[in-house]
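In keeping with the milestone schedule agreed at the kick-off meeting, the structural modelling team has produced records for the first pair of proteins. Each record is given below as a sequence line and a C-alpha cell line. The laboratory manager (R.T.) confirmed that both were archived under the project's standard naming scheme.
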Amino acid sequence: MTQYIPSQSSSLDDWLCYLEGIHPTNIEMGLTRVTAVAEKMGLLSLKSKIILIAGTNGKGTTARCLEALLLAQNFTVGTYASPHLIKYNERVRLNGQQLDDHYHVAAFAALEKGRGDISMTYFEFGTLGALEIFRHTEPDFILLEVGLGGRLDATNIVTPIASVITTIDLDHKEYLGDTRELVGFEKAGIFRGVTPAIVGDLAIPASILNHGKAIGANLCLAQQDFNLSQNESGYLWQSGDNKIRFSQPAIPAQNVSTALATLNQLGLLPTESVVQAQLSRLKVEGRFEILSQAPFVVVDVAHNPESAAYLALKLNAYKEQGYEINALVGMLKDKDQPAALKHLIPIVDGWRVATLTGPRGADADFMVQILTELGVQTLQKFASVAIALDNEQITTNKQLLIVFGSFYTVADAISYWRNKEEA
C-alpha cells in the first residue's frame, strides 16, 4: 500500500500524523541525519542570532523570560519550544505569538521535498521546520530550547552566540545517564569555544566545568559570576557592578537570574524598570498556572525530582496560609515517580491518581502502588484526568487542587477546563 504523503494544501493535522509515522523510532539521538538535511536546505547559515537553552528544568521559563526582555528592547524574537500542551502551534512563536497553521505546513512541505531519502524523527522534522520558518521571517534573535540532553539533540546543529544551561537533574536516564555528572556532560555539549556559556545551576557538576574549560568556552557561572539573593522585599540580582532588583516572579527566580546573566554577557542587560515591568506580566502555560479561582485549581507540569521539589515549595506557601492541599497526579511510566512524589508527601492532604493513556502512560493502579509504598494511606483512583475532575468536590475557599505529573496530565486538565467554560 502506497503511503499517503501530505502536500502544501494538506492540513497541519495531516502533516503531524504523517511525521509521527515516517521514522522507525520516536527518539533516535544523533546529528548526522538532521545536519545533512539542514545543509541541503540552507538552514545552518541563518541571519538571526541564536541562543541555545538546555537544562533538565527551566528551559521554557528561561526562554520566555529572555523573549520578553528582548522584545522590550525592540528586538524581534523567534522561539522554538517543546513539548506543546494543547496545539502544535505552541512550539514556534514569533514575537511572543503563535503562528497560523500555514507557516508550519509550508515549512514541512519544503522539508519533505528537500530531505530526499533521509529519514528524520518527529522532533528533528519539527526543529528544522522551526528553522525554516525563521529563515523566512528573519527575527533578530532565535531562542532554541534543546529537546533532550544537548550534545546529540537536533537543536545542536546551529552555531549559537550563547549557550545556556538552566539546571541539572536526573530525567531521561536511559538516554542521558543516571548521575548528574553524566547528564551534565550531555548538556554541556551545546557549548562552543570562545562563546558565552551561561550555567544557572546552583551545584554545577564538574563535567560541565571541565568540558567548558577544555573547549575554551566563555563560562559564566551562577554563584561565581552572577548571584541572586532574597530578602523581605524581593530579589537582588548582581553581576559585577550591575544590580537589578525585582519582586517575586511567576517563574522560578533562578531562571530569571540565568536569563539576566545571558543578556548581560551579550551586552543586552535591560534596565531595572524594564525587568520589573516585564516580570510583573510574565506567565508560562502549565507552570503553576491557575485554571480557576473558585474552585481553586492549579496545574503544573512538574514530573521529576527537581521540579517536584520546587512545586512543593510553592504549595507550602499556601499550606502555611491555612489551605488544604489536594493533588491529582498522572505520570509516565518511564519517570522516577518515587523520587518526584516524595517531595509532595508532607504537603498534600488528599491524593487522587489518574490513568494516563498512551504507551508511556502509567495507569492508576500503578500510581496507587507507588504512593502506598511512600506511606499514603488514603487515595482515590480514576480512569482519566477528566473523570477525576468530574468527581472533584472542593467545598470551601480554603481548598486547593493541584493537578501535576506530566505535560499530558496538564494538557488534559486544561482541555477539560476549557470545555467546561465553553459548555
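The second protein of the pair:
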Amino acid sequence: MGDWCLIESDPGVFTELIRGFGCEGVQVEELYSLDDESFCQLRPIYGLIFLFKWRQGDEPSGTLDADSKNIFFAQQAISNACATQAIVNLLLNVHEQEIKLGSTLEEFRDFVSGFDSANIGLALSNQEKIRTVHNSFARPQVFELDIRSPAKEDNYHFITYVPINGRIYELDGLREAPIDLGPIKEGEDWLTTVRPIIARRIEKYNEGEIHFNLMAVIGDRKAKYEKRLAEIAEAGMDSDDVAQEVYNLQSMIHDEEEKMKRYRKENVRRRHNYIPFIVEMLKILAKEGKLVPLVEQALDKNAKKELEKEAQKKTAET
C-alpha cells in the first residue's frame, strides 16, 4: 500500500483529477454561496464535495445505512486519500448516459463488486492507476522541515453528498457505512433539500470559522453548449433570436476553453519545483549583503502590524 499525497481543494485540480481517471462528461465548479441562484447556474449537479475541518467525536447528521445494497461506498483505509475517495464514491453512484466513467473506474467497480465497504476501501488504496493520478498533484519537496511545536495541526476532510433512489446520502470514508440524510422532498430538486443540511453543519462550528469549501460535480459545460449548437444547426433555425443564441453559445464555449487552459497552467505551476530558484535567489541576496537587511525589514513590518492589531483591539474594547 503506497503513500498518498494531500490534494488541494480546487476545481481545476479536481477536474483534471477526474479526467486523469479517464472519466468524461463532468467537470468541477466551486460554490461560493448556498443560495438558490448559485446552484441554478450550474445544473445539472450530480453531487457535491464538501471540505471541512474534521473534529474528533463529531456525530453523523443522519442515520448510518449499513444495509444499503445499491450504493457504492468505500471506507477510507489510508491517510490523505479522502479527496479521491470522495470523487470515486460520488462518480460510481451517478448513472447518467452523458457520463462515461472510463476503463479505470469501470474495471475497479467490477473488481470490487460484492466486496464490503472496508474491502472496497482497501482495494482503492492499492489501485495503482488511481493512486498514480492522485499523486501527480504532489507538491515537490527538496527537503523537509522538522518543526517541533506543541500546537496540533488542523485536519481537513472531504466528503460527498449525492442523491440516490429518492434519498440524499452523505458518503464519508471515515464512517463504516453511507449516512442516510432523509428523502428528497416531493416536488423539489435534491439540491433544495440538501442546502439546509449543509448550512446546519456549517453553523455547528465557531463563529468566524471559514475553513469550508464546497464544490459541485456538474455536466461538461462545453459539451452541453456544443450539443445545443448542433441541435440548432440540424433544425435549420434562422432568426435574430437564434443568431443571438448561437453567438452566446460560441462565447460560452470560448470561455470554457480558456478556463480549462487556465486550469492546466495552474496545475503545472502547482507541480513545479520552485525551491532551487528560491535557494539560488537567497544565495545571491546573501552574497550582495541584502538578505539580512530584508529579513530585518520584514520582521519590523510584521511587528508594526501586530502593534496596530493590539491598538485596534484595545480601541474596540473601550
